[in-house]
Design a protein that fits this description.
Strand content: 15-25%
CATH superfamily of the largest domain: FAD/NAD(P)-binding domain
Structural class: alpha/beta
Strand order of the largest sheet: 10-11-12-13-9-14
Number of domains: 2
């Protein structure tokens, strides 16, 4: 049976995953992206699936919700997870990737698939016919207007990215390599004493930030809170947050520092490191000045400064189905952070769900949503069925998955039971050919 091509707009993590799943099911795809001819303010690479914030896909422990989501995606044949695993770099218990290597590998796989044709174009109106919109949270201009007309008013929040520095510019006489609780030595640690910490916090809260033109009081996503905003919540907020010293002993003193700034490897060559938890909207000169107060970073060379940008997302509840299809227009799907899922892995999961449901739609069948007893399905149910008064972007958590019957009171046992139930469902989907 010959199928007409499905248009996938946007070649980020969600769009590439959706395009791959369609093509793997015999559906030809026209993947359309404005790269490399035009880049958004947050993008630097001309390749696909660029990680514009951290290079970490978070915990790889299956007893953690995002770890479970990754395991589900591995079992169902996710392109994004396969490429992430192949470009993995050391990061303790987290899955971190070589930023450029990951993007290049996804691009190579997409460009090499015989059923995927790639087109460079900036789409300004939702196309007719079968289509998946995965243009990401930076969607704007005429296209966001077209989406608003089709689905209702879009919402927004502000997101921030952390800076990246060169390893060779660090003062390694002040820095030690160690992961928390002696789980290897994948992180570099800049220890701070009491005096150094409070001086840093004082300068941080008084530093000049870059202007945000659209709104005077921007709405900031809690999961990517700028470090200067956190510091203004109290002198000890950072010491109990991204600068917490718990599980870290300075081998030179044998003691736990008062506070610790951690750096995580950003590339396979081990030449670049990002400052963990330091999403920021400080002006570039202020980043160099204030972050230079951190022991070991006095002469740090910044290859990328932190930035803050506006993100848009749909008011999805009641408008999308659990398989990310627009209720009032069958055959039009959305995927990625534009739908209200938050995070790299969550975006890929929504692209997977939209892709396999679109494949069924293209074959004249009804889409099949995942159960909310799985992490993939829980994301679709959250964005489509949330019934609160303040819909906001959401990372995967066990809290949005269907509750267990007769759940154990012990949290670890309860999470383990949720994981077992979820993976049993996933295995059943695979074995029965549902996906």
């Amino acid at each position: 049976m010959a199928f007409s091509p499905v248009k996938v707009i946007g070649a980020g993590l969600a769009g590439c995953e959706a395009a791959w799943q369609l093509a793997e099911r015999g559906i030809p795809v026209r993947l359309i992206d404005m790269k490399p001819g035009k880049l958004s303010p947050a993008h630097k690479l001309g390749s696909f699936s660029e990680l514009v914030c951290s290079n970490s896909l978070r915990s790889d422990n299956v007893e953690n919700a995002v770890g479970l989501l990754k395991e589900e995606l591995r079992r169902v044949g996710s392109l994004i997870m396969r490429c992430a695993d192949e470009t993995r770099i050391p990061a303790g218990g987290a899955l971190a990737v070589d930023r450029n290597g990951f993007s290049s590998l996804v691009t190579e796989r997409i460009m090499g698939h015989p059923l995927i044709s790639v087109e460079e174009d900036e789409i300004k109106e939702i196309p007719e016919g079968l289509c998946i919109i995965a243009t990401g949270p930076l969607t704007g201009g005429e296209l966001i207007g077209s989406i608003e007309r089709a689905a209702g008013t879009s919402l927004h929040f502000y997101d921030a990215a952390a800076p990246v520095v060169t390893k060779e510019s660090l003062d390694m006489s002040k820095v030690f390599a160690l992961s928390r609780y002696d789980r290897g030595s994948d992180y570099l640690n800049c220890p701070m004493n009491n005096e150094e910490y409070f001086r840093f916090v004082r300068e941080l809260v008084e530093a000049e930030t870059a202007p945000l033109h659209e709104f005077e009081t921007p709405r900031v996503f809690e999961g990517c809170m700028p470090v200067e905003v956190m510091a203004k919540r109290g002198d000890m907020t950072l010491a109990f947050g991204p600068l917490k010293p718990v599980g870290l002993t300075d081998p030179r003193t044998g003691r736990q520092p008062f506070a610790v700034v951690q750096l995580r490897r950003d590339n396979a060559e081990d030449t670049l490191y990002n400052i963990v938890g330091f999403q920021t909207n400080l002006r570039f000169p202020e980043q160099k000045r204030v972050f230079g107060l951190i022991p070991g970073l006095e002469n740090a060379e910044f290859v990328r400064y932190g930035v803050m940008h506006r993100n848009s997302y749909m008011d999805s509840p009641g408008k999308l189905t659990p398989c990310f299809e627009l209720r009032n227009r069958p055959g039009l799907f959305f995927a990625g952070q534009l739908t209200g899922v938050e995070g790299y892995v969550e975006s890929a999961a929504s692209g997977f769900a939209a892709g396999i449901s679109m494949a069924r739609r293209a074959a004249g069948e009804e889409p099949a949503a995942f159960s909310d007893e799985t992490a993939i399905g829980a994301l679709g149910h959250y964005v489509s069925c949330y019934n609160g008064s303040d819909f906001q972007p959401m990372n995967i958590t066990f809290g949005i998955m269907a509750p267990l019957k007769n759940a154990p009171k012990n949290k670890r046992l309860r999470n383990a039971a949720v994981v077992q139930r979820s993976l049993e469902h996933i295995n059943e989907y695979v074995n029965k050919g549902v996906i």
